[in-house]
Design goal:
123 residues, alpha+beta, 40% helix, binds zinc ion, two-stranded antiparallel sheet, single chain, 7 strands
Length: 123
C-alpha cells in the first residue's frame, strides 16, 4: 500500500491502528484497491457504542485475499472483520474495481479486475 494512504488511514483511525499500551502499530501490507474496504470497516467500528477496545495487529494479502489480525472482543466485530475479508475476494487489490481470484505466475493467487489482470499477464 502507498505509504501516504497507509499513514492517512492510520492517523484517521489511530485508536485501532496503534496500541499505546504495547507501543505497536498495525502492519499493513496489501494493495491500494482494498483501502476503501478497510476504511469502511473502521468507520463501522468507530460507530459502535460503546466504542470497542480493539487493535489491529496486521492487515495483509495472503493467498490472494485480505487477512486481518485483530483483537476481536465481540462476535459483532468478528463478523464485520470477516465481512471485509470476504469483500476482498471480489475487489481488485490494485484498483478497487470488481474482480475475482486468479492464479498468477508461480501459482500466486491474486484478486484482479479484468484490466489489472491483463496488465499483469502482459507484463
Ligand atoms: Zn483492477
Amino acid at each position: 500500500m502507498d505509504q501516504e494512504i497507509r499513514e492517512a488511514l492510520a492517523a484517521e483511525f489511530s485508536q485501532f491502528f496503534e496500541d499505546e499500551e504495547t507501543s505497536t502499530e498495525c502492519v499493513i501490507s496489501c494493495g491500494d484497491g482494498w483501502t476503501p474496504l478497510i476504511h469502511d470497516l473502521c468507520t463501522k467500528l468507530e460507530a459502535l457504542l460503546p466504542q470497542p477496545e480493539l487493535h489491529f495487529s496486521s492487515m495483509r494479502e495472503m493467498q490472494g485475499t485480505l487477512r486481518i489480525s485483530a483483537t476481536l472482543p465481540t462476535d459483532e466485530i468478528a463478523n464485520l472483520v470477516k465481512e471485509t475479508e470476504r469483500k476482498s475476494e471480489h475487489t481488485c487489490e490494485i484498483c478497487g474495481e470488481p474482480g475475482r481470484l486468479h492464479g498468477g505466475k508461480n501459482d500466486k493467487l491474486m484478486v484482479r479486475c479484468n484490466i489489472c489482470w491483463s496488465n499483469y499477464i502482459e507484463a
